[in-house]
Fold this protein.
Amino acid sequence: MAFPWLQTPPTDPKFYGFPAPAKLNLMLKIVGRRDDGYHLLETVFRFIDYGDTIWLAPDDSGHIVLETPLPHVAPDHDLTVRAARALQQATACQAGVRIRIDKRLPMGGGLGGGSSDAATTLMALNQLWGLGLSRQALQNIAVTLGADVPVFIFGEAAFASGIGEELTTCTVPHAWYVVLHPAVEVATAKIFASEGLTRNSPRSIMRALETTQRQNTLQNVVFEMFPEVKNCYDSISRYGNAMMTGSGACIFLECESQKEAEQVYCSLADEYQGFIAEGLIEHPFYSLSR
């Protein structure tokens, strides 16, 4: 794996660094709604070789301390803190941890940054605290934190249904991605509350790779609410079939090679922030859980 930023540890040697990669939704559609208001969806998740870094310093204090709180997010609401506390409660663990986050993924970007951070925290602390929980046990904790958290512990490219927690391994092709951020933060709850959202897309016949559909039924609603996202989509669409990931705001384009991705990104870098990344077959820490 690349994750080159892990080569430079923080000044405090008590911290261990763990990658929290971004995800892309290669397909996303809403197929229904539960009585409790949760939306039923179908999507294909894949991880990419770009993301945040979670630094953890375990101790025996019993306290969970976030040393790098994010702007406008109370530490108690941060998903890494919630993940650590949920793991403590599920196992009656008396250990503590200090947490630092190197945040590279934009908030409200549809890249799963917060969910990935939470999943990495669960997997890493399971090791650092010597808890020995299985992958399924960690996924059971993860789903209480958010619908996107379990897939990062599942650890493979996956077809997801239900509210996102029913996961089936699927095959994805080797690819590179150009990912652009249109400098707006899209609140997921706002998009799912929209009256214009299509909630009755036909279900897939096969629980298999659905990338041939290449659709995101949230996309048009986001475009109407956030013209900046539509403009970004139009710009990158000159080079191929672009798509929005998650509930936005990031737009991505799949490329066959690193060279192609670099050429596309260079042509748009003056207009938009973003990055290129290689697609991953599995999470960097897939082998941490069994």
